């Protein structure tokens, strides 16, 4: 190893050491400042533990980011990408969970039954309830066409209901798989 390479590595190690030392000092100072403030306003130490945890984690992330930046890696770009992917995944799962939970609310609250005619005023959706699945309620209109209505829609919109001739409780005719 020649002298310039050794000097570059040594300089990098010193810079990383300085980053870690300054970061540790800043984290310690922030925790002390919070502790002093908490004593003045008489906060319980139990309340402060989560605050200390957040300070330590954020401090560690910033220190790690600064160190990785020395190697040309931008941690904030990686973290933003991960957060964006989690948010997208949450939105996708939220929609499914919303419909699934709405199914159970429909079974429990019984706003309509199988064989009832249901319509959404102001919408072109009207039909006889023929099936309930974990995500959708199937309506059949007068022309024999089927509508797959997401179950959460029944809690977001006003529905108009006409009782059927032989209504069947939704819980009795719950279908796990869609037939249409």
Topology:
Elements lengths: L2 H39 L3 H26 L4 H35 L7 E3 L6 E7 L3 E5 L5 E5 L2 H4 L3 E3 L18
Antiparallel strand pairs: 1-2, 1-5, 2-3, 3-4
Structure characterization notes:
The protein is an alpha+beta fold and 180 residues long. The chain folds into two domains: 3-73; 75-180, SH3 type barrels. Helices cover 58% and strands 13% of the residues. The chain contains four helices and five strands. It has helices at 3-41, 45-70, 75-109, 153-156, and strands at residues 117-119, 126-132, 136-140, 146-150, 160-162. A five-stranded antiparallel beta sheet has the order 4-3-2-1-5, with no helix packed on it. α1 runs antiparallel to α2. The longest helix has 39 residues, at 3-41. It is elongated, with a radius of gyration of 30 Å. It starts with a helix and ends in an 18-residue tail after the last strand.
């Amino acid at each position: 190893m020649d002298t310039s390479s050794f000097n570059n590595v040594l300089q990098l190690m010193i810079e990383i050491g300085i980053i870690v030392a300054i970061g540790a000092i800043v984290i310690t100072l922030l925790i002390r400042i919070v502790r002093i403030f908490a004593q003045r306003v008489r906060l319980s130490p139990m309340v402060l533990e989560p605050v200390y945890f957040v300070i330590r984690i954020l401090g560690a992330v910033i220190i790690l980011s600064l160190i990785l930046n020395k190697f040309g890696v931008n941690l904030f770009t990686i973290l933003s990408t991960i957060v964006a992917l989690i948010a997208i995944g949450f939105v996708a799962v939220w929609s499914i969970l919303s419909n699934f939970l709405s199914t159970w609310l429909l079974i429990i609250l019984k706003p309509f039954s199988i064989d009832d005619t249901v319509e959404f005023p102001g919408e072109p959706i009207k039909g006889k309830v023929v099936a309930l699945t974990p995500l959708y309620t199937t309506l059949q209109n007068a022309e024999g066409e089927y509508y797959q209505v997401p179950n959460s829609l029944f809690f977001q919109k006003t529905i108009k209901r006409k009782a059927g001739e032989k209504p069947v409780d939704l819980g009795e005719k719950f279908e796990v798989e869609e037939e249409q």
